[in-house]
Amino acid sequence: MSEHDTFLAQAHDLLGERGLTQDPELVTPWLTDWRGRFTGRALALASPASTEEVAALVRLCATHGVPIVPQGGNSGMSGGATPDESGTTLLLSLRRMNKVRRFNLAAREITCDAGYVLQTLHETAAAEGLRFPLTLGGKGSATVGGLISTNAGGSQVLRHGSMRAQVLGLEAVLADGSIFNSLEHLKKDNRGFDLKQVLIGSEGTLGIVTAATLRLVPAIAERAVLWIGLAHIRDARRLLLQAEEMAADALEAFEVLPKHSLEAVLAYSPNARAPLGHAHEWHALIELVADRAAAERLPALAQELLESAFEQGLVEDAAIAQNEAQAEAFWALREEISPAERAIGPAMQHDISVPVARMANFVAEAVPEVERAFPGTRGIAFGHLGDGNVHFHVLAPEGARRGEWEAGEGKQVSAFVHDLVTSWHGSISAEHGIGQLKRDELVRLGDPVQLAMMQRIKQALDPQGLLNPGKLMPPSPHKLAPPGATA
Amino acid sequence: MSEHDTFLAQAHDLLGERGLTQDPELVTPWLTDWRGRFTGRALALASPASTEEVAALVRLCATHGVPIVPQGGNSGMSGGATPDESGTTLLLSLRRMNKVRRFNLAAREITCDAGYVLQTLHETAAAEGLRFPLTLGGKGSATVGGLISTNAGGSQVLRHGSMRAQVLGLEAVLADGSIFNSLEHLKKDNRGFDLKQVLIGSEGTLGIVTAATLRLVPAIAERAVLWIGLAHIRDARRLLLQAEEMAADALEAFEVLPKHSLEAVLAYSPNARAPLGHAHEWHALIELVADRAAAERLPALAQELLESAFEQGLVEDAAIAQNEAQAEAFWALREEISPAERAIGPAMQHDISVPVARMANFVAEAVPEVERAFPGTRGIAFGHLGDGNVHFHVLAPEGARRGEWEAGEGKQVSAFVHDLVTSWHGSISAEHGIGQLKRDELVRLGDPVQLAMMQRIKQALDPQGLLNPGKLMPPSPHKLAPPGATA
Predict the structure, then answer these.
(1) CA-based angle B276:B279:B282, to the nearest 5?
(2) Nearest CB neighbour to A181, from listed B202, B482, B487
(3) How far is A400 from chain B (nearest CA, A)?
(4) What secondary structure letter does DSSP report for A427?
(5) Which residue has the higher pLDDT, A137 or B264?
(6) pLDDT of A420 over the 60 cut
(7) Which pLDDT value is given to residue B137?
(8) Could you tell me if B333 and B402 are in contact, meaning their C-beta atoms sit under 8 angstroms apart?
(9) A99 alpha carbon, distance to own chain's centre
(10) B390: helix, coil or strand?
(11) Residue B412: phi, psi to the nearest 5?
């Protein structure tokens, strides 16, 4: 019996028929990432049913030196949950662990397994007059464990923060099979390092998240959705400041879309309608929300915000959604940008951030800079202006061949965009993580001191390198910067 | 020349006359902690003037194997900034680094050196119509670096969170003298581990904080301070839930005081007046605040909250401060508890937390349990009920001798209280940190998996063990828990 056969036999004994499979029909769908960019192979697919099973399995892997790729809903954007092509790694799905462990209504806290799906979490909270304040496109498949491991973002970060801000407690299995348990939420606890913070956003390279305690907030009683036409992206920045000043905690989202994105959606989606009568260079999509206590004042607040923006000459035209259907229609324009653009032709997509105050200037300067450097391309920036995070897409020149362009000039475009963002002190991954997609770019552009710290922590907590190898961390120990090197 | 002499000569060359001293008059005041519990010795007192000087000094220390004790305002509660008695460590003060580096009004962000004093930060923010939403007793001396290294708390954590929640960016010198720099605030950044989180609250054992970017919030335009008489601590819990429901983000503080504490303050402080006509077993001190936009509605909100609490029979009596002087007087009653109790006699003080929902029950059960176990003692719990954090003081039996009792029965009392808190899944250090005061208790009661993780991270980032030795971390490598051990 080979080492792998021994391991598989023992894993089968541990997890049973439902917990371990090599059946290609069951395994193959999980070997390609959501965007279809990466495909790997796996020794088997393990689906443990409890934290104890995960722990025992990890111990078994450690004994036999079998690397592990943890996977939640397989809806990540950077290939972080897809194994490599060696076929020697175990794909470990957390999807069978999908129960609520505890729901504390008064404290507005819910403890659930890693495999609990975001959409289900939304529904569970809503049934009790509460909500979980983070949402994103893949909510039907994204799991709590995956959201935590990637520190997921979305369109509500402006007010509520990323996934990190929602995590009150965490349970994870470490590389040696020991169980880290800080599920009990203590609002104040200064017994040393806040270890859960190290695990959040570590993309499964330091531990496998098995459960979490999450915060919930009161349900929205009223919302006001505004669609605003603007002459310039810099006016959007001024409008954002005005909205923050006037609406404070009521400001739930502040998104921007250029003319090109709206036109693309109108051309692509038969039901889409332009909310305003005339064309504008830029659009802002603003959502204000209120819970029961503040609901009454919300319509007046939305009105006052618009009036003040008009008075200051920030706004060319504007509409407030008159009902829920119209509000949904405004949001649909935002959400269909990506498919609408994909229909146009090949493009390189970049999920980037710079300091919030500088994002408008960045967009204003970076778009023409990219278009100059790569004649015929078109730069499009849209998204979460309020977070200093835009999706910066570069459309290929007309006639470019899909597949070919991305692998050729497209790669140069991405390196150019990442260089530009880095020179603006920004991030080459605002919300999608590093995974395998951006690992080499992180090594190329990351701060050497920080890369060395990460490498040392990885080495300390996973000395065998068995947790999600090839993701996030450079493949071989990164050299520590020479003493005194600064960022 | 001895190794120490060589080191001192080189350090002197590096830092100059103002930057390095062995003069006992200058050094001695900093060798005893604020509460006078710990006194140590030091090779010298270094006061570098810049991050680069700190980095060069740390490299020098690494070369010569000289341990470093970083120190801010020396107002910590757990001896974390006091050197041991060996006389071989360098005391490194950050107080000379006390400048604002950048103040971004529109973004409400301030970047300042580690030695910037909290009180000055408050004044700087207030001058621009903003505020820094964290305060505590030692604000006249506490520094930004110390607040970050200890993840300081205070009475505004309920709404704004601990120091961790205020830190948008961080700069620190690591054990090898390299400079970690993430001062630039990116609202979204998923380029791997959030390394600044590892440094926050690590009490100088992983790096020396040299600067930080902090968030500011709008200034308070209006506040309502309520003093409420209650029959039982469990009514305080219900009142807290009611206040959270009705006041939401306006709820700035929720403190509780038992009858004994109020009586102690009234006996101790000649200017103190009882806010209510009759005696009550418990009191709640509630502060509601509003910025300019919400100021108008605040008095009505305070009134409604009280009415609803009366209707539900939660409250025996209540007063709303009629002016700023009265509001200050209410708060003074809370702030003078500690000196008032010290005047009574010896006591053991415990800074503890349990899950917020269980704190009222904990107090109701733990006080009689301690008093039964140690006849003649008196248990007093007061403080931040809204954070699940109380200061749990146990007063010595009458006639106990100061100094003697604390070292004898007092020690047993503390172990008993810590055991009790641990069995309630709470923390033996809610906001004061571990330092040298609670290090052995952390080793005794801490989760072995978490202690092992901390030890491994410490070993990875400070392999020579030069940063604040003897604090927080157990003195020798803590054994990793056997695989599969759970918390």
Answers:
(1) 95
(2) B487
(3) 31
(4) B
(5) B264
(6) yes
(7) 87
(8) no
(9) 23
(10) strand
(11) -65, -40
Residues of A with Cβ-Cβ distance to B201 under 8 angstroms = 190, 192-194
A232 — phi, psi (to 5°)? Answer: -150, 150
Is there a contact between B248 and A164 if contact means CB atoms under 8 Å apart? no
The per-residue b/e assignment along A265-281, b for 16 or more CB within 10 angstroms, e otherwise, is beebeeebebbeeeebe
* Mean pLDDT of the region A67-73: 98
Share of chain A above pLDDT 70, in %: 97
Question: Taking the CA of residue A76 as centre, how many other CA atoms within 13 Å lie in the half-sphere pointing to its CB?
Answer: 36
Per residue, what are the HEC states of A430-486? Answer: CCCCCCCCCHHHHHHHCCHHHHHHHHHHHHHHCCCCCECCCCCCCCCCCCCCCCCCC
Structure tokens at B154: 């205070």
Reported as a pLDDT band with limits 50, 70 and 90, residue A249 is confident
Inter-chain touch B190–A456, beta carbons under 8 Å: no
Distance from CA of B199 to the nearest CA of A (A): 8
Residue B93, judged by CB atoms within 10 A of its CB (0-12, 13-18, 19+), counts as buried
Structure tokens at A144: 């709590």
Distance (Å, whole) CA A239 – CA A256: 11
pLDDT average, residue stretch B215-243: 95
pLDDT tens per residue, range B304-342: 999 999 999 999 999 999 999 999 999 999 999 989 998
How far is Cα A336 from Cα A262, in angstroms, rounded to an integer? 9
pLDDT of residue A486: 39
Q: What is the largest CA-CA distance in chain B?
A: 79
- Taking CA–CA distances from A192, the nearest residue in chain B reads B202
Q: pLDDT tens digits, residue range A328-373? A: 999 999 999 989 998 999 999 999 999 998 999 999 999 999 999 9
3-state secondary structure of B478: coil
Give the CA count within 13 Å in the CB-facing half-sphere of B110: 24
Check if the beta carbon of residue B442 is closer than 8 Å to that of residue B448: no
Let me know: does B223 contact B327? Beta carbons within 8 Å: yes
Q: What is the DSSP annotation of A263-280?
A: HHHHHH-TT---SSSS--
Residue A478 pLDDT greater than 50, yes or no: no
**How many CB atoms within 10 Å of residue A339?**
12
- CA distance linking residue B414 with residue B370, whole number of Å: 10
The two counts, helices (H) then strands (E), for chain B are: 18, 18
Residue B41 has pLDDT above 80, yes or no: yes
* Residue A476 confidence (pLDDT): 56
A223 within 8 A of A287, measured Cβ to Cβ = yes
Chain centroid to Cα A139, Å, comes to: 11
Look-up: residue for tokens 């999908």?
A: A98
Question: Chain A interface, mutation test: which of B190, B205, B296, most A Cβ atoms within 10 Å?
Answer: B190
Amino acid at A369: E
Contact A355 B185 (CB under 8 A): yes
- pLDDT, residue A248, reads 84
pLDDT on residue A480 = 40
pLDDT value for B484: 39
Please tell me which residue of chain B has the smallest CA distance to A105.
Answer: B357
* Range from B289-293, B349-353, B459-463 carrying the lowest mean pLDDT: B289-293
Q: Do strands A179-181 and A167-174 pair parallel, antiparallel, or not at all (unpaired)?
A: antiparallel
pTM of the shown model: 0.95
Contact residues, chain A, for B193 at CB < 8 Å: 198, 201-202, 206, 453-454, 457
Q: What span, in angstroms and rounded, lies between the C-alpha atoms of B25 and A203?
A: 52
Q: Is B241 exposed, middle or buried (0-12, 13-18, 19+ CB in 10 A)?
A: middle
Nearest to A435 by CA among A482, A479, A468: A468
Judge: B176–A483 Cβ closer than 8 Å, yes or no. Answer: yes
Per-residue pLDDT, A484: 39
